[in-house]
Design brief:
Layout lengths: L2 H7 L41 H13 L4 E5 L2 H10 L6 E5 L4 H14 L2 E5 L4 H7 L4 E7 L11 H10 L3 E5 L4 H4 L9 E5 L13 E5 L5 H12 L5 H11 L2 H20 L4 E5 L9 H7 L6 E6 L3 H9 L5 E2 L9 E4 H5 L9 E5 L5 H12 L1
Parallel strand pairs: 2-3, 2-4, 4-5, 5-6, 10-11
Antiparallel strand pairs: 1-7, 6-7, 8-9, 9-12, 11-12
Helix pairs in contact: 1-2, 2-9, 3-4, 3-8
Bound molecules: pyridoxal-5'-phosphate.
């Protein structure tokens, strides 16, 4: 089946309990054992397994071309499970502009727990190679990166990782499987904040890890999911499965609208620079063309002005909402540095937009007025 078809049909037959076309929401936290004491469908207690979660995990695994998926109550909980699947003393390599929540997770929790981490520019293979040592176990990739939209070459990085026996995890939150399939490019794990495009309506928090193989590191991730217990509720799983049915068509809309916005900004006199891999002039365009099916809904740009003027421009929008996060049907934007806090290196005049599914002309009119 093709992706659009899988988004609609996958997972429906997992633990199917009735003839309903749409799987019912199953809120029971406990399941009755049979008279011999065995557990039909391996159902026992909802922290360990639940029909709605099993359906969601089968659906996401199928979309990402993976063998198995574990879902979590947030994207950072999913990332924490990947890190905890390593051993104290292990070394991890992350991009220098990695999503700031994952940087905080590494700094505040995982480094004190015993992991070592180097942050490097992943657009340069030599810089990655330079920091690999005998303790290195995991290469963490995020492309396009956040908020600079740098593109790194997944296939090349995976080759380098494999020749050094490293695991590769790609944070695929921004592209989604519609625009990028990391497991097909050689990665072992693909990670999601399902809070973003998977949910798509800014009303669900969640995370997922998909594995190329059910054996190996994934077994440990599954154990952490159940033992540490940062699992999503049945209701969130049910709603997320419903949202994913339309993911391929929503992503096409996000890709198309973001292309309009990026080109508009590129020609605007109040804009110094646009970061969007779909622009011919973008340094990541060549690699993005090879590894992506679409360039995504996120655009960053440098406003021609200082911090205060940049914040004022963001304040002038009437349609585009001032909010953090991304991936919803509504367009949002923010002065990114203010969101990232003290140790952020994001330029003070950078604005990040999550381009929604409104009519593009309405978005361009609002942008034109706000930028001045
Ligand atoms: C939001 C986000 C996360 C974290 O997910 P939460 O659901 O907020 O915990 C991880 N990676 C990227 C790229 C994100 O945008």
């Amino acid at each position: 089946m093709r992706l659009e078809t899988k988004a609609i049909h996958s997972g429906l037959d997992v633990l199917k309990e009735s003839i309903a076309v749409v799987p019912p929401l199953n809120t029971s936290t406990i399941f009755e054992h049979d008279q011999q004491g065995s557990q039909p469908g391996d159902l026992n207690y909802t922290r360990a397994q639940n029909p709605n979660r099993a359906q969601l995990e089968a659906l996401i695994a199928d979309l990402e071309e993976g063998e198995a998926c574990a879902t979590f109550s947030s994207g950072v909980a999913a990332a924490a499970a990947v890190f905890q699947a390593l051993e104290p003393g292990d070394h991890v390599i992350m991009p220098e502009d990695v999503y700031h929540g994952n940087r905080q997770l590494m700094k505040q929790l995982m480094t004190p727990w015993g992991l070592q981490c180097d942050y490097v520019d992943m657009t340069d293979l030599n810089k990655v190679e330079d920091v690999i040592n005998s303790d290195t176990k995991l290469l963490w990739i995020e492309t396009p990166s956040n908020p600079m939209l740098l593109i790194s070459d997944i296939a090349e990085l995976c080759k380098l990782a494999k020749s050094n026996d490293l695991l590769v995890c790609v944070d695929n939150t921004w592209p989604t499987p519609v625009n990028q399939l990391p497991l097909e490019l050689g990665a072992d794990l693909s990670l999601h904040s399902t809070t973003k495009y998977f949910g798509g309506h800014s009303d669900i928090l969640g995370g997922a890890v998909v594995a190329k193989q059910e054996e190996g590191i994934f077994k440990r991730i599954r154990q952490i999911q159940i033992t540490a217990g940062a699992v999503p509720s049945p209701r969130d799983c049910w709603l997320l499965s419903r949202s994913i049915r339309t993911l391929p068509y929503r992503m096409r809309g996000h890709n198309e609208n973001a292309g309009h916005v990026a080109r508009f900004l590129q020609d605007h006199p109040k804009v110094d620079r646009v970061f969007y891999p779909g622009l011919e002039s973008d340094p990541g365009n060549e690699i993005a063309k090879n590894q992506m099916n679409g360039y995504g809904g996120m655009v960053s740009f440098l406003y021609s002005g200082k911090k205060e003027q940049t914040i004022r421009a963001v304040g002038r929008s009437e349609l585009i909402l001032r909010a953090t996060s991304l991936g919803g049907v509504e367009s949002t934007w923010e002065h990114r540095r203010s969101s990232e806090g003290e140790d952020s290196t994001t330029p003070q005049n950078l604005i990040r937009i999550s381009v929604g599914l409104e009519h593009p002309e309405d978005l361009l009119e609002d942008l034109g007025k706000a930028l001045g």
